[in-house]
């Protein structure tokens, strides 16, 4: 993989930022692609751009706002919907954007193909599975086959975080020398607050618990 280019689907959050630096370590060149999908907190995009610049990678932003226009009731894109603070028993939390990863990765593949790139990196994880079906390994493997068939190509979808939890994701960012950058300069919070965030939304809780666990394990 050393001489090849990778495209990272890059939101500017903890997971995709860790993936961005993982890709920098494993590939000769890295390109980052950020999507604007109608999220309430477009501030994410500014952070993504700033991190990409700091990382010295090419950065592109693609508007795919039609995704949020297709469905209603998602608290990440609809200002009238209060956010689920915990995962409901039988269904996806209302922070789920239906089709998001399907669209993102399909568009990323077209974007990559156009530039002769076959490696695509995404920060999805099945371990800290929030109830999002499109973060599961089976979905990624299935989509990889579909993309290859759809475009008669040989894409390789990489998911470095698939089987690790949040504490291990922090450990990986530390190993890559970017723990402080990830901690202070990314936006994971569902309320759009950078760094340690609002502290109480599901994304902040997961992120904080992982960080505490990792820092404790280091002592
Ligand atoms: Zn938060």
What does this structure look like?
The protein has 219 residues and is of the alpha/beta class. It is 43% helix and 11% strand. Strands 3-2-1-4-5 form a five-stranded parallel sheet, sandwiched between helices. Helix 1 links the parallel strand 1 and strand 2. Helix 6 crosses helix 8 (202-218). The radius of gyration is 16 Å and the shape is globular. The model has no long low-confidence stretch (mean pLDDT 90). The protein binds zinc ion. The site of zinc ion (ZN) has 9 residues, from helix 8.
Give start-end ranges of low-pLDDT stretches.
none
> What is the CA–CA distance across the termini?
35 Å
| Bulk shape | globular
Which secondary-structure class do the elements indicate?
Answer: alpha/beta
Mean pLDDT: 90
Map the helices and strands.
Elements: E1 5-9, H1 14-26, E2 29-36, H2 43-55, E3 58-63, H3 66-70, H4 100-114, E4 119-121, H5 137-151, E5 156-158, H6 166-175, H7 179-185, H8 202-218
Parallel strand pairs: 1-2, 1-4, 2-3, 4-5
Helix pairs in contact: 1-2, 1-6, 6-8
The site of zinc ion has 9 residues, from helix 8.
Provide a brief overview of the structure.
The protein is an alpha/beta fold and 219 residues long. It is 43% helix and 11% strand.
What are the main properties of this structure?
5-stranded parallel beta sheet; binds zinc ion; alpha/beta; single chain; 8 helices; 219 residues
């Amino acid at each position: 993989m050393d001489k090849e280019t990778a495209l990272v689907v890059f939101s500017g959050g903890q997971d995709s930022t860790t993936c961005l630096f993982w890709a920098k370590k494993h590939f000769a060149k890295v390109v980052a692609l950020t999507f604007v999908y109608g999220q309430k907190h477009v501030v994410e995009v500014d952070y993504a751009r700033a991190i990409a610049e700091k990382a010295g990678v090419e950065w592109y932003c693609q508007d795919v706002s039609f995704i949020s226009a297709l469905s209603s009731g998602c608290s990440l894109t609809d200002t009238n919907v209060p956010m689920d603070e915990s995962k409901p028993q039988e269904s996806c939390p209302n922070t789920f954007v239906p089709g998001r990863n399907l669209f993102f990765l399909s568009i990323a593949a077209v974007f990559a193909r156009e530039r002769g790139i076959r490696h695509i990196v995404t920060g999805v994880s099945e371990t800290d599975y929030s109830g999002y079906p499109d973060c599961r390994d089976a979905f990624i493997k299935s989509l990889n086959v579909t993309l290859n068939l759809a475009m008669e190509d040989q894409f390789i979808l990489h998911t470095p975080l698939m089987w690790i939890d949040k504490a291990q994701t922090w450990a990986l960012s530390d190993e890559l020398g970017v723990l402080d950058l990830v901690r202070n300069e990314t936006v994971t919070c569902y309320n759009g607050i950078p760094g340690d965030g609002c502290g109480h939304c599901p994304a902040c809780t997961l992120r904080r618990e992982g960080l505490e666990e990792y820092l404790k394990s280091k002592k």
